Automatic annotation (TrEMBL):
Belongs to the selenium-binding protein family. Pfam families: SBP56. Keywords: Selenium. It comes from the Eukaryota. One of its GO terms (molecular function) is selenium binding. This is Selenium-binding protein. It comes from Riptortus pedestris. InterPro entries: Se-bd.
Length: 212
């Protein structure tokens, strides 16, 4: 019988050594490391970054990203080495949502994510930012198709109740288009006249034929 137990705890102070906080999404990489997205700096201001952890020692080894350009916000990410790309989404400035939901903050595009950030997988630098606009507020879970040779994927935008398809252009740049809109529901006694669909996750079937 298996008995899982905690092997090691990486404290926030370890992340702070590299100027980041609020870890979120983790994925294992082919080189026996773990890549974790972070949402803020050490003062809980927004800062989209990616942190590397050694898969043998479980020590934080540093930031994955290079260059001077950084993402305004962070959240989820997924990568596709065949197309030399990592696509990262955006949430909100950490100090705001740690105090609770504030609709005025959500509507503030300086404090709330509305973009996809495109990184070179090889060079690990931010090469493009796609602004999804008012229809793409709070893009969260990012999903490439399972077919590694398919240069496209989807992201669900929580507050806008939409799903965007992102894809690679012939010139190597990336674009995004809205493909799904979930109708909002009228409600009384809520903070807004209508409740958005709040898409918090999207999933693709293993054969890439269905999106859930």
């Amino acid at each position: 019988m298996r008995a899982p137990k905690i092997h090691k705890v990486i404290e926030g102070s370890e992340l702070a050594k590299f100027g980041v906080s609020t870890p979120h999404t983790s994925h294992c990489l082919p080189n026996n490391t773990v890549l974790i997205s972070t949402l803020g700096d050490t003062e809980d201001n927004s800062l989209g970054q990616l942190l590397v952890i050694d898969g043998n020692t479980w020590e934080v080894t540093g930031l994955w990203t290079t260059g001077h350009k950084t993402a305004n916000h962070g959240y989820d990410y997924w990568y596709q080495p065949h197309w030399d790309v990592l696509v990262a989404s955006e949430f909100m400035v950490p100090y705001s949502w740690k105090l609770g939901c504030d609709v005025d903050v959500i509507r503030n595009k300086d404090m709330t994510g509305h973009s996809l950030n495109i990184y070179s997988w090889t060079d690990r630098n931010l090469i493009q930012t796609i602004d999804l606009g008012e229809d793409g507020m709070i893009p969260l879970e990012t999903r490439f198709l399972h077919d590694p040779k398919s240069p496209q994927g989807f992201v669900g935008c929580a507050f806008s109740s939409t799903v965007f398809r992102f894809y690679r252009n012939c010139d190597g740049t990336w674009s995004a288009e809205k493909v799904i809109t979930i109708p909002k529901v009228k409600a009384n006694g809520w903070v807004l006249p209508e409740i958005p669909g709040m898409i918090t996750d999207v999933l693709l079937s293993m054969d890439d034929k269905w999106l859930y």
